[in-house]
Specification:
mainly alpha; 2 domains; 10 helices; 48% helix; extended
């Protein structure tokens, strides 16, 4: 947790000093300039191309910079000391995060090529995921959690990970409820109450469906022109019924569709 707090301190201050300027001043294709360094000229007046007060926009974008650095800490926890970690995320926020944010959100080369990032998929998640191994791969594991893993994994005795059914994990659930669920749909009940994965996925989602959307060698696919994409969540766990994706669907309970 303290690594996340440290990222708030280090990255938050550097974001105000120079990071915001490097990310959001429309300088070159790779990075902005220092015209807004030290928040020079950043006030309550919106920027020319926006209706949002610039100070509010600075603070909002600063949360993404801090959270992205904090995400990296999950890969290096108990593998790196505090001082090197602080130095790493300080330099990373300026040398990596600010330029990538500029590429996508500050008018950089990715933005000019039509790339869109509405929720931080590239700037935050891909950026953190690609940056974390740079500190993770060369550092040996250490710490109490790693010691516990070495003591317990693959050995009889004290439990490190517990996998059990609902009756064991939560004895307050009435046995009649569990029995009725198994009588109605054994596969669904085994997933919900038996602590096991479903083994009948292909009865309502064939393997060809995700395979048809996969392009070998591609990590991302853009939207297909002329198609409407709908996501769905099936709270019934696949049990047949009027509210289920897999069973007798009621009016308006269709699955993903395409048009065009």
């Amino acid at each position: 947790m303290m690594m996340s707090v440290v990222s708030l301190a280090f990255v938050g201050v550097l974001w105000a000093l120079v990071g915001y300027s490097l990310a959001f001043v429309p300088g070159g294709a790779a990075v902005g300039d220092l015209s807004l360094a030290l928040l020079r000229g950043v006030g309550l007046t919106p920027a020319a191309s926006s209706s949002i007060p610039q100070l509010r926009f600075f603070a909002y974008q600063g949360t993404f910079a801090i959270v992205t650095a904090a995400l990296i800490s999950g890969a290096v926890v108990e593998r790196i000391r505090f001082v090197p970690y602080g130095a790493f995320i300080a330099l990373w926020s300026l040398l990596v995060y600010a330029p990538v944010a500029h590429w996508m959100w500050g008018g950089g080369w990715l933005a000019h090529r039509g790339a869109l990032d509405f929720a931080g998929g590239t700037v935050v998640h891909v950026n953190a995921a690609r940056s974390a191994p740079s500190r993770d791969s060369s550092s040996p594991r250490r710490g109490e959690m790693w010691k516990a893993y070495q003591r317990h994994y693959g050995k009889d005795g004290d439990v490190f990970v517990w996998k059990a059914n609902t009756g064991t994990m939560n004895p307050t659930v009435p046995a009649s409820v569990i029995s009725a669920a198994y009588a109605e749909d054994e596969a669904a009940a085994n997933a919900e109450y038996g602590g096991d994965f479903r083994r009948d996925i292909e009865t309502f989602l064939t393997a060809e469906t995700p395979e048809a959307s996969r392009v070998p060698g591609r990590r991302e696919l853009g939207p297909t022109p002329g198609c409407t994409y709908l996501a769905f969540v099936d709270p019934s766990g696949g049990v047949a019924g009027p509210d289920a994706y897999s069973g007798n669907q009621g009016p308006g309970m269709g699955g993903p569709t395409t048009t065009g």
